[in-house]
Every structure is written in C-alpha cells, then in structure tokens.
Amino acid sequence: MMLAWEAPGVDIEPINKESDSPSNNQIEDDEGWSLFYTSSTEMAVQVNNENTVGPEAFTRIAPACAAIADVVTTQNLFDALTNTSGSRLHFLIYDKYLQSLDKVIKSAKNVVAASSNLELVDGEVILDVDGAVPTQPVLQHIGISAWPGRLTLSNKALCFESLGVGQYEKPARYDLSRGLKQVIKPELTGPLGARLFDKAVMYRSTLVEPVFLEFPEFKGSSRRDYWLDITLEILRAHKFTRKYSLKGIQESEAIARAILGIFRCRAVREAFHFFSSHYKSLLVFNLAENLPGGDAILEILASCLLRIGACSAQADISGSSFTEKKLVECPVSLVTLSVLGLTLDKDVEFDSKATYLRGYVCVGETNQLEAAVKQLKMDTGKAEAAQLTVNQVKVDGIDANFVIMRELLFPLILLASRLKVLASWEEPFKSTVYMVLMCYIFVR
C-alpha cells in the first residue's frame, strides 16, 4: 500500500492468488504465527527488494493499522526505522519492526496470564517487566540499604516485588491513575545512600515518601531512561483524562493509545537498540509534553476523544461521508487492543470489523490531528532554525559564562595580540623601540 501511494500507476507483477486467499492471510495469534501476516519471506518477494518507501507514504498509510503507528508519532517512528538508511524505508527493516512488535504483544498477553501474584484489577494490562533476570536486577533504595526485586508497569500502576527467600514478597503498588500530585523524575543513587550514579528513578506522591528505583548497568543509562519514559507516559495519560474529564470509553481509548505507543517503543528498542530523545519520542503524551506547542495537540486529541461514542455497533462500509466521519470517531486503539487479546473495558461492546481496518486514516481528507501535527512540525523546524542561529553566535565548546568573561577581558586580549605582533618583528622599527624601552625599565 505504501509503494502504491508513493508511485501510483507503476506496473508491478500480480500477487500470487494462493497467497491472497483468506486462509493464508488471516490474522492469527497462536505461537509461531504473526499478528500481521503469515509469511515474511513471501511478502518480501512480492514487495521486491529494490523498492523503498519515503516519509510521506509511510506517515499516510502506516496509521491505518493502529497497532503499527500513531498519527502523532508516525514521523518519529519513520525516522527511527530509517536512522541508517538515508530516510528511505526498506521492507526488511519494516518486517523486522513488525516481528519485534508481534513478540512484544504476545509477551504482554503471556505476562498477563501469569501475573497472579500482582492481583490485577479489571481492565489492567501489564506493559513491561524488569528485574526478573538475576544479572539485571532492579534495586529499591530504602534509607542506606538497597534491596533487589522485580519491577512491573501496568496501565494503572507501578509495582515492585522484593525478592525474598526463593520467592517474591507482596508487591508495593504505586497507583498512577489517581491525582495524588505524583512526581517521577531521574535521580542519583549509590551505595550507603551516596549520590554517585545517575541510573535511578524517583517516585513521590502525597501518600508515599520518595522511593528510589535503580537500574544498574555498566555504561550509559538507557535502561533507566526507558523506564522513566514509559512510566511518565502512563502518568501523563491519566493526567490527560482527568484534565479533559474523559470517562468510560473515552478514557479507555486515551489509555489504549498510550499502551500501543509503549508497545511500539519496546519493539523499536528491542529490535534496533534505538533510544529516542525527548524531542523524537515514540510516545504520544511524552511528545506532546516536551514539544513547544504540544498542548494544541492534546486539545485536538481531547476533542476527538470527546466525540467518541458507541457508534461502531451500527457502522457500515457504504463509503458515505457521514459513515466515514462516524468511523473515525470510534475507539480505534481500544478496538485494536481487544482484537489483539488485551481487554481494557469489559463493559464496552463493539463490532471490530468496521473500525479496526480503518485505523486513524480519514479517506479523502486530512485528519484534524494529522494537520495539527504537520503544523507543529513546521513550527518546531522554525524554532530549531532560530536556535541554530543563536548557537552560531556563541563560541563553539565554550559556556555562555566564559563568553561573557572573554568580552570583559577583551582589552587584555588586545594587548596580548599587539605584543605578539611586536615579538614577530614584522615591523623592525617598532619592535626595536619596544625592546630598548623594556630593557631601560628592567635596568632602572
């Protein structure tokens, strides 16, 4: 579809009819089957190894499947996938991303089934677990002591299970869905309470004293940064629902959007060992929080969510403009999670056939959110260009305070340059007079 969008009307070989049959291309979730297609080798042959896709086709078509991309972050996802290929997406890279995303979703389903120790509430989905491997523990600092354990993030809470004698103890649960003036930020930790290593996350709320969770690793802090980002994404998603008074299916759709973003972030991180900066985030609410003008994105997203209703039960595919607008306002992310086997809201009933295949794409027109993201990208580009102009004025590698100090010492610098000219004997008369004068002063 992306190749056709980028080069419409180009003659290509017809796809094998056997591979196009419903029995071969249906979505399966059994072990060994892909959630997106059955044979990546067969797909690669059909696509042709020499063809690549540009950003315009990817950002337009990829959000049609809500699990694969989000309208808000699709450009950043494309930049991550084409980080080493000159802004052209090859099918093998895209296939590797899909396979990684497939594994992430299946692992989330398996963890939910085996998480009896956490006592999950209805609609709670486990997003990631760390610290289960002895070589990569998570340490909880209490006073001057540190205790290893297992850390779990769900769509409602952050849970830490201390490692006891051969088993995990009762988990400490930090609720992210309530408005408790919660603060999550990076922090320094070390042995005996020393602040040496920048590898920890601090959590604090009105009900809980500061809790420090350390992610030890030999070099860098990418592991800590990843957990900081995904935890903040859930926290900001719940703050977003409270700010705009989203309830029921609207709240579930916002949380589902954050969950799918975390799955995509995990897939890219595990497949390509790529970690995005704050301004290239693959997480919707983190991106809107850190970008200038991101509040406009959140306002438009909230207006779209407020129009969501139980419309998918009566939706059809007749192609009328009324029907298309109706389809766009359905809970696409929530339906996607339901199709993938992860249920957030058991009280909501809908027909997934009318919405899942449409994703975030508006046929024949541009989505409001898509237009806002493009405008924000233009504004961000102008801001970056202005900042680049400011940086050019500064001296490379020197802090602003040193630049100011250099201006204050400008007379001494000018005197030193003149002494250097005299010492070079470019003007013998002046150099001779200066040498005689200095000798007279020394003698006196």
Structural features, described:
By secondary structure, the chain is α+β, with helices and mostly antiparallel strands. Among the domains are: 97 residues, no CATH class; 127 residues, Pleckstrin-homology domain (PH domain)/Phosphotyrosine-binding domain (PTB) (PH-domain like, Roll), CATH 2.30.29; 50 residues, no CATH class. The strands form two sheets. Strands 3, 4, 5, 6, 7, 8, 9 and 10 form an eight-stranded antiparallel sheet that branches. A hairpin with a 7-residue loop joins strand 8 and strand 9. Helix 8 crosses helix 12 and helix 10 packs antiparallel against helix 13. The longest helix has 26 residues. It is globular and about 100 Å long.
Offer a few descriptive terms.
two-stranded antiparallel ribbon, 16 helices, 444 residues, 8-stranded antiparallel β-sheet, alpha+beta, globular, PH-domain like
Order of helices and strands: HHHEHHEHEEEEEEEEHHHHHHHHHH
Please name the CATH architecture of the domain at 117-243: Roll
- Identify the CATH homologous superfamily of the domain at 117-243: Pleckstrin-homology domain (PH domain)/Phosphotyrosine-binding domain (PTB)
Instruction: Output the CATH class name of the domain at 117-243.
Output: Mainly Beta
